[in-house]
Structures are given as C-alpha cells and as structure tokens.
Amino acid sequence: MSEAALSPAVESRPIQATGLVTRIAWRNLWRNKRRTWLTAGGIAFATLLVTFAMTMQRGAYGMMIESATGLIEGHIQVSHFRYPDDTKLEQTLTKAAELMHAVDDLQGLEAAPRAGAFALVSAEERSFGGFVWGVDFDREVEMFTFFNGIQEGRLPQSDDEIVIGRTMARNVGVAVGDELVMLGSGKQGGIAAMAQTVVGIYESGQAELDRTLLFTRLTAVQNVFELGDELHVVSIRIPDHREVYEERERIQGALGQTYLVRTWDEYMPEVVQAIEIDRIGGYLMYGAILILVSFSVINTFLMIVFERTREFGMLLAVGMRAPLIMRQVLTEALFMWVVGVAVGWGLASVFVGYLMVEGVPVAGFEEIAGTFYISDRIYPAVDAASILTAPVVLLIGTQLAGLIATLRIRSIAPVEALRGE
Amino acid sequence: MSNTVVKCEKVEKTYQKDSVPVYALRGVDFEVNAGDFVSLSGPSGSGKSTLLNVIGGLDRPDSGEVTVDGVALSGLSESELTELRLRKMGFVFQAYNLIPVLSAQENVEFILQLQGVPQAERRERAEAALESLGLADMSHRQPGELSGGQQQRVAIARSIVSNPVLLLADEPTANLDSGTTEDLLGLLRRLNEQENMTIVTATHDPIVMSYTKRQVHLRDGAIERDALAA
Ligand SMILES: Nc1ncnc2c1ncn2[C@@H]1O[C@H](COP(=O)(O)OP(=O)(O)OP(=O)(O)O)[C@@H](O)[C@H]1O
Ligand SMILES: [Mg+2]
Q1: Which residues' Cβ are closer than 6 Å to ligand 1?
Q2: pLDDT in tens, A270-328
Q3: Beta bridge partners of B11
Q4: Residue A78 forms beta bridges with which residues?
Q5: Please, which of A65, A299, A337, B90 could form a disulfide with A398 given CB 3.0 to 4.6 Å?
Q6: What is the pTM of this model?
Q7: How far, in Å, are A58, A84, A265, A278 from residue A273 at the CA level?
Q8: What is the predicted ipTM?
Q9: Could you tell me the CATH number of the domain that includes residue B87?
Q10: Is the domain of A371 the same as that of A332?
C-alpha cells in the first residue's frame, strides 16, 4: 500500500525538524563530556597538525622557488621560440632595445637582458668548452643573488673584463688578473674571438655552473658574436611567485605572440619535481592522520549508537522515524566537528601566526644563506588549501563516521531495543 | 465506522528461542472499543507485551490481522507504522520513556513537534497536559531531576498530548511504589472517564486491575478470561 492510499488515516506531513534535531544533538554532545572532548580533541589536533604542516610546506616551497629562481634564472624568461630546445646563437630576440623598453614599462617587474654564446676558453696551453653570458651587471646584482657569490676580485667594469667560476679557473689554470681567450663563431659566420682579463672568480655551489659559465658585459658579447641589437634571454623577476601565471599573461599580452614567455616551472622542472615528491609525501601523511582521526570518530559514534539503542527504540516507538534519528546523530557528528575544528583553528592561528613573524630556522642552511644573503628561516605561508584541507576532509570523515554508525539505527527493532530492562 | 478502536483477528506470533518455537500468541481474537480501559494480566511469558506490541505496530504477527482505528496494520511499511504510532497512539513503557537531555516540557512538546504543530500551540498544549497531571512546576526539570513516578507522569502527559485514539501502557507502574502507583492509576482513570481516552495496559499488579473497567487475563498466548469489572 502506498502512503497516499493511507490518507487521511496515516498522513505524513513534512515537518520542520531542524530546530528540534539541532537542540537534541547539541545537548547530547555534552552527555559524555570526557568522550566528546577526547574525540573533538583528536579532530582539533589533526586540524592543527595538518594546517601547520601545510603552511610550513607552502612556506618551504615558496622559499625553494625563491632561492631557485632568485639565484640567476628568474621567475619568467622571454626568448625566441626555438631557443630553449635549440640553444643556437641565431635564435635571438631582435630589436633588443625596443623589447627592453616594453618590458621595463610593465609595472612591478625587474628584467635583465642577456646574450650568450658557446666558446672555447683557453689560457696558455689549456682549453675548455664554456658558455659566455653577456649581461647587464647593474641589473643582475639588483635582481639576483648569484653575483653575491664572487669569492675573489670584483665584477667587470669594462668590455674586456670577465668573471669565471672556481672550477673553470682551476681547469684552465688562471687566477684573478690573468688573461683568458674565448674563441667561437659569430652570428654572420665570422670567427668570434675575445681576449679578456679575469677580474673575479665566483663559487655558486653548483658544480655545473662553476665549471661552464663565464660572465662579461652584454655589449662585449653582442659585438664579438655579431649580434648587434639582439638578445637571447630576458630574465624577469616578479614580487610574488604565486602570481607567476598572471604575470606571464600580462607580459605575453604586452609583448605579443612573437616571443616565447616561459615560467620557472617550465625551465626548472627539477624544482617542480622536488616539490611534487614532497607534496605527495605530505598528502600521504595528512591522509594517514585524517583517516586515523576519522576512525576514532567512527568508534565514538558506534559507542553512542550502542549506548542509546534503547533510547532510539523508544523514539521509534513513539513515532520518530529512523531517518530523522539518523539526522540527529549526524548533527551531533557535525557539532563534534565544529568544536574540534574551532579549537584546532584557534591553536593553529596562534601557532602559525607566531611562526609567520618569527620563522623557523632551517638546520644546516645558515652558511649558504649567509653567502647569498638569503633568509635561513622558513616562514609558513597561508593559503586557502592549507586552512581548508583538514576541516573539509574531517567534515567528510566525521559525517561518514556518523553515517556508518547510524546505519545500525535502521535495523533497530523497537521491541528488541525496549526489551529486558 | 463503528466505535471499535482495536480489532485483533486470529493473531498468532511465534518466536524461535534456540530453534525451539515459543508460542507467544496463539490465535488471539480481541477487540477494544472507544472508551475502554483494559488491563492485560497473566503470568510472566503469557504474551501481554507481545499483544500490546502487535497492536502498537511495534511487532508484526505471523498471521492474523490487527486493525487500529480502521487501518489494517499488515499493509503498512515500517515507516508508515511509525507515522501511525505518531498520529494515533500514545505509549508508556515501564522505563526509559523520556529523552534525557530534554526538559519535561520539551519531552511533551517533542511529539507535537514531530507532528508539525506550530510552536505557540505546542507550548500551550504541553503546558495544559503537564498541568492536568500535576506537573506544572516541574516542567523545566530534566528527567534525571524527577522521581520515577514523576517521570511516568511526564510520559503519560507526552502520550496524551496529541489526543491519540489509543493509549498503550506496558507495566507503567512496575517500578513504582504502591502509593505512587495509585496516584498514577487515578490519573489514568480520570483520563478515561473525563476525556474518554481508550487505554490498554499490561500489568502484573492486582491494584492496577482493580482500577480498570475491563480485565483480560492471558495464559500461554491465549485469552483465558475477559471480564468487565463488577
Ligand atoms: N524476541 C523474542 N524472542 C524469543 N522469544 C520471545 C521474544 N519476545 C517474546 N518472547 C517469548 O514470548 C513469550 C511471550 O512474551 P511476552 O513478553 O509477551 O510476555 P509477557 O506476558 O509480557 O511477560 P512478562 O510479564 O514477563 O513481561 C515469552 O515466552 C517470551 O519468552
Ligand atoms: Mg511484558
């Protein structure tokens, strides 16, 4: 028989039960204060731990990205479309002066023009392959930490001066003040040769760089390698790495589609990878914590349902339908969540807030940090995901836990529940 | 429709206990008319509770039919039975009648709230019900702050506040002393006489039987005696 057929004998009117259910659920929550605080404490602890860890992770990633891009690469690079895959001399950005003008017109950015060429680097009888970058030292020093790593001497001040890496210096056998000869081919096919004085030696801590890269003034490279008013790369720094994609759009928009504008994650995939691996590790840990807490909530609610079997039997007997009883228990789970997350957030905001001011020292990082004048502390970074992940997952977890526990209510027979006082 | 409120026809109920059949009800034919005040008595295990539960739709008979206020219960789903109990019946059990976190007043209003009665009317009716049972000044106490007899009175208030066609009580006085028992029965008698409330109560207690208009005696799942009070 359908319910309609029963009418008006058994007419089921929809009722406004939210207030009723909410009141009973809230008071039920405090029937067993100790258990509620233990369970809510678990939720609070998980919220605190996951929020703290996620903001620290984000802070650390931010620092990794800043120190990786801040060394010399920049957040964004403009180049010829083929240059990244085919680093040939002829893949240039033409009309460099105009281009730099356009970039400099964009507010809030710093940009460094660069032109580079392969060359055979020799002194006396020894020769090694190297890559000579012509750069604007004033801008580079402003923007990057790399040239803070000059260990000996100074930066070039004229077109016949050059700085080289420690390893290169050792390989070729030169010291500050010695003469170095670079041999390559110019863009028009002519022989490019320059003889320069080593005025400085750097040590970046990255073997690959120290062994291959030489830096001289931009005009020197442009003249010797027959580049004229052309560049290979414009390296750009932005104030906040989190806005790198918006900034890329802005730059691409301003320069037009003839240029390749790439973000750091495209030319430094190893940094992305390191972050991804750490992120996955983090998610595994958060997952474990959140699942563990959810299980303790399941346990609590199974106990609640077990203890109140007789009460639920009575409620069914006097006419409260099973779905409404389930809703009442789920509301209780919701309150458990609210209390836990409120406490967890409260603690996290104090804790993370303090660390955002004070920072967390990174062990073993002081020396490098000192050399390159970058921070040796991690500052937690707050974003929506770091604040919301734990609460959202726990909301799902506690509601699922409540649901699993309340499924038993459907099978409560009032007669059985009320039997045997 | 006649004034028959409950009609049981050939109601049988058998339980399995350790795979031995226990005949709780063996073909019970039983009618309750509007305005009846019936006690179900009999030895322990004679089927009193089973009969009440079957009438209340808390348990289903194996065969036979139960009709309450013209509705055949065998045709109803579990949730329809729950709805029927809400609309037409009041229940008082031996114990654990009340929601421990609600005050007396809220416990009584609870049923009306489930029925969708608006707040102002709810309050008024609950207050009246509590008042009529002499609980006016205890309406804000929670069950834990009430004596056993007071709790049972609140349970009665809750069960009558919605004007059910039938009040079912399973040993409502079993946990009470004799003085309190007589108080409670006086209230039930008044309800029956003044409000014409139809009441069926299971009991062991001769005092209870002495208050009812009609005494039904069960033995081994069958009605042994069905007599009107002298
Ligand atoms: N769920 C059940 N499973 C097995 N047997 C049951 C069940 N419910 C009742 N019985 C049996 O059915 C018979 C009738 O039980 P019922 O509870 O109706 O008796 P009663 O008259 O209310 O007894 P009491 O005075 O002790 O309350 C008893 O023999 C009882 O053991
Ligand atoms: Mg019984």
Answers
A1: B 15, 17, 22, 24, 42, 44-50
A2: 989 989 998 999 999 999 999 999 999 999 999 999 999 999 999 999 999 999 999 99
A3: B28
A4: A234, A261
A5: A337
A6: 0.82
A7: 15, 19, 9, 9
A8: 0.92
A9: 3.40.50.300
A10: yes
